[in-house]
Amino acid sequence: MEDALRHIYRLAETGDGWVSNTAVATQLDVTRATVSSTFDALATRGLVEREAYRPVRLTEAGETAALDVVRRHRLVETLLVEMFDYAMSEVDVEADRLEHHLSDRLCREIERALGMPSADPHGDPIPDAALDVEHGDLIPLFDVDEAAVVEVVRILLRDDETLDELVSVGIEPSAVLTLTERTPLGTVVVTVSGTDQQTTLPEAVASAILVESGGG
Protein backbone atom coordinates (compact mmCIF):
# COMPACT_ATOMS: atom_id res chain seq x y z
CA MET A 1 0.00 0.00 0.00
CA GLU A 2 2.93 2.37 0.66
CA ASP A 3 4.18 1.78 -2.89
CA ALA A 4 0.72 2.54 -4.27
CA LEU A 5 0.43 5.71 -2.20
CA ARG A 6 3.80 6.96 -3.44
CA HIS A 7 2.90 6.36 -7.07
CA ILE A 8 -0.55 7.90 -6.72
CA TYR A 9 1.07 11.00 -5.25
CA ARG A 10 3.73 11.17 -7.95
CA LEU A 11 1.25 10.74 -10.79
CA ALA A 12 -1.12 13.27 -9.24
CA GLU A 13 1.69 15.84 -8.88
CA THR A 14 1.81 16.47 -12.59
CA GLY A 15 -1.84 15.79 -13.39
CA ASP A 16 -5.24 16.91 -12.14
CA GLY A 17 -5.05 14.93 -8.90
CA TRP A 18 -7.00 11.92 -10.17
CA VAL A 19 -5.02 8.76 -10.92
CA SER A 20 -6.18 5.71 -12.85
CA ASN A 21 -5.88 2.06 -11.96
CA THR A 22 -3.97 1.45 -15.20
CA ALA A 23 -1.38 4.15 -14.50
CA VAL A 24 -0.56 2.73 -11.06
CA ALA A 25 -0.49 -0.84 -12.37
CA THR A 26 2.04 0.22 -14.99
CA GLN A 27 4.24 1.92 -12.39
CA LEU A 28 4.12 -1.06 -10.03
CA ASP A 29 4.30 -3.67 -12.82
CA VAL A 30 1.32 -5.56 -11.43
CA THR A 31 -2.15 -6.38 -12.73
CA ARG A 32 -5.03 -3.93 -12.62
CA ALA A 33 -6.90 -6.40 -10.42
CA THR A 34 -4.10 -6.17 -7.86
CA VAL A 35 -4.26 -2.39 -7.93
CA SER A 36 -8.05 -2.45 -7.60
CA SER A 37 -7.71 -4.51 -4.43
CA THR A 38 -5.11 -2.08 -3.12
CA PHE A 39 -7.34 0.89 -3.94
CA ASP A 40 -10.17 -0.76 -2.01
CA ALA A 41 -7.91 -1.24 1.00
CA LEU A 42 -6.72 2.36 0.84
CA ALA A 43 -10.30 3.60 0.57
CA THR A 44 -11.31 1.53 3.60
CA ARG A 45 -8.57 3.30 5.57
CA GLY A 46 -9.75 6.70 4.36
CA LEU A 47 -6.61 7.35 2.33
CA VAL A 48 -8.19 7.72 -1.13
CA GLU A 49 -11.49 8.81 -2.61
CA ARG A 50 -12.70 5.76 -4.45
CA GLU A 51 -15.60 4.92 -6.78
CA ALA A 52 -15.80 1.68 -8.71
CA TYR A 53 -14.22 1.85 -12.17
CA ARG A 54 -13.14 5.46 -11.62
CA PRO A 55 -9.74 7.07 -10.92
CA VAL A 56 -8.80 7.71 -7.30
CA ARG A 57 -7.63 10.82 -5.48
CA LEU A 58 -5.72 11.08 -2.23
CA THR A 59 -7.63 12.34 0.78
CA GLU A 60 -5.91 14.72 3.19
CA ALA A 61 -4.88 11.75 5.34
CA GLY A 62 -3.76 9.89 2.23
CA GLU A 63 -1.60 12.76 1.07
CA THR A 64 0.08 12.93 4.47
CA ALA A 65 0.77 9.19 4.38
CA ALA A 66 2.03 9.42 0.80
CA LEU A 67 4.34 12.34 1.58
CA ASP A 68 5.91 10.34 4.39
CA VAL A 69 6.77 7.54 1.94
CA VAL A 70 7.88 10.02 -0.73
CA ARG A 71 10.21 11.73 1.76
CA ARG A 72 11.90 8.45 2.66
CA HIS A 73 12.16 7.34 -0.96
CA ARG A 74 13.68 10.57 -2.24
CA LEU A 75 16.13 10.82 0.66
CA VAL A 76 17.36 7.30 -0.05
CA GLU A 77 17.76 8.12 -3.75
CA THR A 78 19.82 11.18 -2.87
CA LEU A 79 21.94 9.23 -0.40
CA LEU A 80 22.71 6.55 -2.99
CA VAL A 81 23.90 9.11 -5.54
CA GLU A 82 25.79 11.42 -3.19
CA MET A 83 27.46 8.82 -0.97
CA PHE A 84 27.67 5.67 -3.06
CA ASP A 85 27.98 6.93 -6.64
CA TYR A 86 24.81 5.31 -7.95
CA ALA A 87 23.61 6.53 -11.33
CA MET A 88 20.30 8.38 -11.52
CA SER A 89 18.86 5.41 -13.44
CA GLU A 90 19.75 2.98 -10.64
CA VAL A 91 18.29 4.62 -7.56
CA ASP A 92 14.54 4.19 -7.95
CA VAL A 93 14.45 0.40 -7.59
CA GLU A 94 17.01 0.41 -4.78
CA ALA A 95 15.16 3.11 -2.87
CA ASP A 96 11.91 1.19 -3.30
CA ARG A 97 13.47 -1.66 -1.30
CA LEU A 98 14.82 0.56 1.47
CA GLU A 99 12.17 3.25 1.92
CA HIS A 100 9.93 1.11 4.11
CA HIS A 101 12.59 0.64 6.79
CA LEU A 102 13.75 4.19 7.54
CA SER A 103 12.79 5.75 10.87
CA ASP A 104 12.07 9.45 11.23
CA ARG A 105 15.34 9.82 13.11
CA LEU A 106 17.37 8.16 10.34
CA CYS A 107 15.69 10.41 7.77
CA ARG A 108 16.76 13.47 9.76
CA GLU A 109 20.31 12.14 10.05
CA ILE A 110 20.47 11.50 6.30
CA GLU A 111 19.27 15.06 5.68
CA ARG A 112 21.97 16.48 7.93
CA ALA A 113 24.70 14.32 6.40
CA LEU A 114 23.71 15.48 2.91
CA GLY A 115 23.38 19.16 3.79
CA MET A 116 19.57 19.32 3.85
CA PRO A 117 18.92 18.59 0.15
CA SER A 118 15.76 20.08 -1.31
CA ALA A 119 15.52 17.71 -4.29
CA ASP A 120 16.50 14.17 -5.21
CA PRO A 121 18.72 13.19 -8.19
CA HIS A 122 15.76 13.41 -10.60
CA GLY A 123 14.97 16.92 -9.33
CA ASP A 124 11.88 15.74 -7.47
CA PRO A 125 11.33 17.95 -4.39
CA ILE A 126 11.98 16.24 -1.04
CA PRO A 127 9.33 16.87 1.64
CA ASP A 128 10.85 18.23 4.84
CA ALA A 129 10.39 16.73 8.31
CA ALA A 130 7.01 18.48 8.59
CA LEU A 131 6.06 16.93 5.21
CA ASP A 132 5.92 20.33 3.57
CA VAL A 133 7.08 20.33 -0.03
CA GLU A 134 7.81 23.17 -2.44
CA HIS A 135 6.95 22.99 -6.12
CA GLY A 136 8.54 25.47 -8.48
CA ASP A 137 6.81 27.05 -11.46
CA LEU A 138 8.08 24.64 -14.10
CA ILE A 139 7.15 23.96 -17.70
CA PRO A 140 7.87 20.98 -19.97
CA LEU A 141 10.87 21.44 -22.23
CA PHE A 142 8.66 20.58 -25.21
CA ASP A 143 6.54 23.68 -24.55
CA VAL A 144 9.30 26.30 -24.50
CA ASP A 145 9.87 28.63 -27.43
CA GLU A 146 12.54 28.04 -30.03
CA ALA A 147 15.84 29.68 -29.07
CA ALA A 148 14.82 29.79 -25.40
CA VAL A 149 17.53 29.17 -22.80
CA VAL A 150 16.30 27.10 -19.87
CA GLU A 151 17.59 25.18 -16.87
CA VAL A 152 16.59 21.57 -16.31
CA VAL A 153 15.00 21.24 -12.87
CA ARG A 154 13.20 17.91 -12.87
CA ILE A 155 13.06 14.75 -14.98
CA LEU A 156 9.86 12.74 -14.62
CA LEU A 157 11.04 9.73 -16.62
CA ARG A 158 11.88 6.47 -14.85
CA ASP A 159 12.94 4.43 -17.89
CA ASP A 160 16.51 3.43 -17.05
CA GLU A 161 17.80 3.34 -20.62
CA THR A 162 16.38 6.76 -21.45
CA LEU A 163 17.76 8.28 -18.24
CA ASP A 164 21.22 6.92 -19.02
CA GLU A 165 21.03 8.33 -22.55
CA LEU A 166 20.04 11.76 -21.26
CA VAL A 167 22.85 11.84 -18.70
CA SER A 168 25.35 10.71 -21.33
CA VAL A 169 24.63 13.85 -23.39
CA GLY A 170 24.57 16.14 -20.36
CA ILE A 171 20.83 16.45 -19.85
CA GLU A 172 20.15 16.22 -16.11
CA PRO A 173 18.98 18.54 -13.34
CA SER A 174 20.90 21.88 -13.31
CA ALA A 175 21.93 21.53 -16.98
CA VAL A 176 21.32 24.64 -19.09
CA LEU A 177 19.82 23.99 -22.51
CA THR A 178 18.99 26.01 -25.60
CA LEU A 179 16.06 24.78 -27.65
CA THR A 180 17.72 25.04 -31.03
CA GLU A 181 15.03 23.76 -33.36
CA ARG A 182 11.57 22.27 -33.66
CA THR A 183 11.46 19.71 -36.47
CA PRO A 184 8.54 18.82 -38.77
CA LEU A 185 8.58 15.36 -37.16
CA GLY A 186 7.47 16.81 -33.83
CA THR A 187 10.84 16.47 -32.14
CA VAL A 188 12.96 19.18 -30.56
CA VAL A 189 16.68 19.75 -30.90
CA VAL A 190 18.54 21.07 -27.87
CA THR A 191 22.11 22.17 -27.19
CA VAL A 192 23.67 21.74 -23.76
CA SER A 193 25.41 24.89 -22.53
CA GLY A 194 29.19 24.67 -22.74
CA THR A 195 29.14 22.11 -25.54
CA ASP A 196 28.50 22.06 -29.27
CA GLN A 197 26.57 18.80 -29.01
CA GLN A 198 23.02 18.82 -30.25
CA THR A 199 20.49 16.21 -29.13
CA THR A 200 17.15 15.44 -30.72
CA LEU A 201 14.38 14.53 -28.29
CA PRO A 202 10.96 13.04 -29.09
CA GLU A 203 7.90 14.79 -27.68
CA ALA A 204 7.32 12.19 -24.95
CA VAL A 205 10.83 12.68 -23.56
CA ALA A 206 10.92 16.47 -23.93
CA SER A 207 7.52 16.71 -22.23
CA ALA A 208 8.88 14.79 -19.21
CA ILE A 209 11.80 17.19 -18.72
CA LEU A 210 10.64 20.11 -16.60
CA VAL A 211 12.54 23.37 -16.86
CA GLU A 212 12.54 26.97 -15.73
CA SER A 213 13.41 29.88 -17.99
CA GLY A 214 16.44 32.09 -17.72
CA GLY A 215 19.03 29.39 -17.36
CA GLY A 216 22.64 30.46 -17.84
TrEMBL record:
<dbReference type="InterPro" id="IPR007167">
    <property type="entry name" value="Fe-transptr_FeoA-like"/>
</dbReference>
<comment type="similarity">
    <text>Belongs to the DtxR/MntR family.</text>
</comment>
<dbReference type="GO" id="GO:0005737">
    <property type="term" value="C:cytoplasm"/>
</dbReference>
<dbReference type="Pfam" id="PF04023">
    <property type="entry name" value="FeoA"/>
</dbReference>
<dbReference type="GO" id="GO:0003677">
    <property type="term" value="F:DNA binding"/>
</dbReference>
<dbReference type="GO" id="GO:0046983">
    <property type="term" value="F:protein dimerization activity"/>
</dbReference>
<dbReference type="Pfam" id="PF01325">
    <property type="entry name" value="Fe_dep_repress"/>
</dbReference>
<feature type="domain" description="HTH dtxR-type">
    <location>
        <begin position="1"/>
        <end position="59"/>
    </location>
</feature>
<protein>
    <submittedName>
        <fullName>Iron (Metal) dependent repressor, DtxR family</fullName>
    </submittedName>
</protein>
<dbReference type="InterPro" id="IPR022689">
    <property type="entry name" value="Iron_dep_repressor"/>
</dbReference>
<dbReference type="InterPro" id="IPR050536">
    <property type="entry name" value="DtxR_MntR_Metal-Reg"/>
</dbReference>
<keyword id="KW-0408">Iron</keyword>
<dbReference type="GO" id="GO:0003700">
    <property type="term" value="F:DNA-binding transcription factor activity"/>
</dbReference>
<dbReference type="InterPro" id="IPR008988">
    <property type="entry name" value="Transcriptional_repressor_C"/>
</dbReference>
<dbReference type="Pfam" id="PF02742">
    <property type="entry name" value="Fe_dep_repr_C"/>
</dbReference>
<dbReference type="InterPro" id="IPR001367">
    <property type="entry name" value="Fe_dep_repressor"/>
</dbReference>
<dbReference type="InterPro" id="IPR036390">
    <property type="entry name" value="WH_DNA-bd_sf"/>
</dbReference>
<dbReference type="InterPro" id="IPR022687">
    <property type="entry name" value="HTH_DTXR"/>
</dbReference>
<dbReference type="InterPro" id="IPR038157">
    <property type="entry name" value="FeoA_core_dom"/>
</dbReference>
<keyword id="KW-0238">DNA-binding</keyword>
<keyword id="KW-0804">Transcription</keyword>
<dbReference type="InterPro" id="IPR036421">
    <property type="entry name" value="Fe_dep_repressor_sf"/>
</dbReference>
<comment type="subunit">
    <text>Homodimer.</text>
</comment>
<dbReference type="GO" id="GO:0046914">
    <property type="term" value="F:transition metal ion binding"/>
</dbReference>
<keyword id="KW-0805">Transcription regulation</keyword>
<dbReference type="InterPro" id="IPR036388">
    <property type="entry name" value="WH-like_DNA-bd_sf"/>
</dbReference>
